[in-house]
Give the backbone structure.
Amino acid sequence: MKTTLLAASIMTALSATASDIETIEVTADYRVQNIQTIPASVSVLTEQEIDERQARHIEDVLNMAANINVNSGASRSRFVQIRGIGERSQFSEPLNPSVALLIDGVNFSGMGGAGTLFDVQQVEILRGPQSTSIGAAALAGAINITSTEATADQQSLFTATLAQRNTLNLGLAHGGEISERLFYRFAIQQNTSDGFVDNIYLDREDTNNIDELTARLKLRYLVSDDVTIDLALHRLDIDNGFDAFSLDNDGKTRSDEPGYDRQETTALTIKLDWQHRWGNVQSVLTHSDSDIDYSYDEDWTYVGFHPWEYSSFDAYFRERQTTTIDVRALSTLNQPGRWVIGFYASNSDEELLRQYTYADADFSSEYRPENVAVYAEYARDLSDKMTLTGALRWDRFDIDYSDNSGFAEANEDTMVGGKLVLNYTIDDAMLYAGIFRGYKAGGFNPDENVGAEKRLFAPEYTWNYEMGVKGSFARDNGYYRAALFTMKRNDTQVSDYDVQRRDDGTVEFFDVIANADNGENTGVELEVGLQATENLFWRASMGLLNATYSGYKNARGETVPSRQQAQAPEMTFHFALRYALNDQWNWYVDLDAKSDYYFSDGHDEQSRGFGLVNTSVEWQGEQVSVRVYANNLTDKEYYTRGFGGFSNDPREFYATPKPYYQLGNGRQVGVTLDYRF
């Protein structure tokens, strides 16, 4: 059935215009490469596509890519799964991410709320293990966000958006030349919205609000003809609300203590590129300092709601500092053999303070992961059409953890990853086949409720076997990209949760990470695009996925012989159409769809399949454009997070387990004015 569905969709499936094929470049690997020549499954969402969707955050665009899923449990859908692998929440340390998030070189893995999109040049999505170039955080893949560079020739932008639910977005980006060798770019945006939740107890419509400030300054200094220094300074000030779950799953909450989802981050990147006749030396130094606060009203109600109700509030306060350095040497490209050698080191310090109603005292912990790696890559042209590439990365992890409950643990892991890829060019196509090995470190469950036998979990290793083809058709007016993969996961790290009843009959649940024996993720990814006429362009993407694990005993002691992995829909689909009505008017429409999937490995509740339609009409003048847009045009109800296996309803005396859902945004209509100068 899946093969038939794929074959039927190949001729109706699509991600940029034909002219874009030659200009879309991927920057996340060691070298900048054209997307059509990278021997791996990669998608790039361009600035134009981000604008057409009126996207403010990565949650607004990731569903455009095949075999990508996102889920919430916070103010944003900030937890990402690639090919069914990725995190779904974070309540305690240590957490080892499976999907890396890089923003201008800064590693924001595990902090997806930072993925705002103002003045962003493109979003790159790399599927499959990226361990050789990025490291253990990219077991499943990586998302790389690149903002507009500081160059001599720039276009400035002022943007303003008004939309339903008291949505207001204001942004300004400007840059240029300070001297003939020094260039700058700064951008600042304030994005606010009441959100789509109504708190009927407090009579408020803004308890799940969005309030995000993004500021960025970039400098480029041409020290000499051979040396370039790039500097990027980021500031994020996010003060979002979190009040999403209701007893009746209707988007109407009764919380008397709405939660929050806050982040204040200052981050710095310094890049140096030194050109030599044999190649060049690159170094990247980053430092980030973040305060991350997350809380929620655990009972979802108010005192006096019901004689059986309880009242509880849970809050997590994190202070995280991370410093990284990456130094590499690269040979020139104009030779049959091309090499890369490099050294990477990172150091983090994360302090957590948890304040919980049912705890006897505040909980505090300190988590200090350190990482050192060396890596190398060698590519050899076997002929004028065939290239063989091999790469290895050796990673050493040291993790120290301690908390005020008396639990302390140190963990050391040494892991090796790599890849071996053969690609062959024929006519207008490039074929490739490769083996990739990814990994992520083991760890421990610090929650004192976790039994001794569940405290530790082992490292996970993944072998990815992939083959694909990329090329053009219709006289270079169209393009296609297709990949077939099988990922074999050993000691699969499964995210579960356990439910415990308190003496008063109410329930408490907590995260548990454990290992299943094996996991297998097999699927197909396809992207096609065509400039069908001078005025009409369409694109589509489709992902098919079968992801299972076996040999797992869950947190409640139940043996699970085999089942579908959570957050792994068997089908994802995106279709978009852009039509130029005349020289000034453009119409855009797209569809995101996915099949049903499990929310968690710890219960059987599922998200039902859904499709979301977005559309916009744009008028373009010489410097001014106006876009009227409607996201979720049909006002489709869908879910971004779900729980099951317990009752949080005092009207039912907490006795009847039922599912609880976090609803996605409803229909929103708005208008955006852009002034480019």
Remarks:
- The first helix runs from residue 2 to 10.
